[in-house]
Specification:
The chain is 8% helix and 21% strand. It is built from one helix and five strands; from the N terminus they run ββββαβ.
Length: 92
């Protein structure tokens, strides 16, 4: 969530400099993924790597952004299938 307890700031901005978008923003380990990388997570939908986090270490760990702390606890930790979304380059 964008709460002070879970973010490095209380403004809701991610490491990419963009605001958190609940249901779209995820945190990744930038050792493996660039900010801006797009994924599809089964059961959640399309997401974009916009943030990093102390607990997000490793190629297969992601942190899904929500705005409600109670909902975050309800979701909890899950093992879900995640697919890298590759975009075709635009033709000129």
């Amino acid at each position: 969530t964008a709460s002070v307890e879970e973010c490095s700031n209380n403004l809701g901005y991610t490491a990419s400099g963009k605001p958190i978008i609940a249901g779209v923003s995820i945190a990744v380990d930038t050792k493996y993924w660039k900010l801006g990388t797009k994924f599809y997570i089964e059961g959640l939908g399309y997401v974009v790597a916009m943030d990093t986090g102390n607990a997000v270490k490793g190629k297969y760990r992601f942190d899904y952004a929500v705005f409600d702390r109670d909902y975050a606890f309800k979701l909890g930790r899950r093992d879900l299938k995640v697919y890298l979304v590759k975009e075709e380059p635009e033709e000129k």
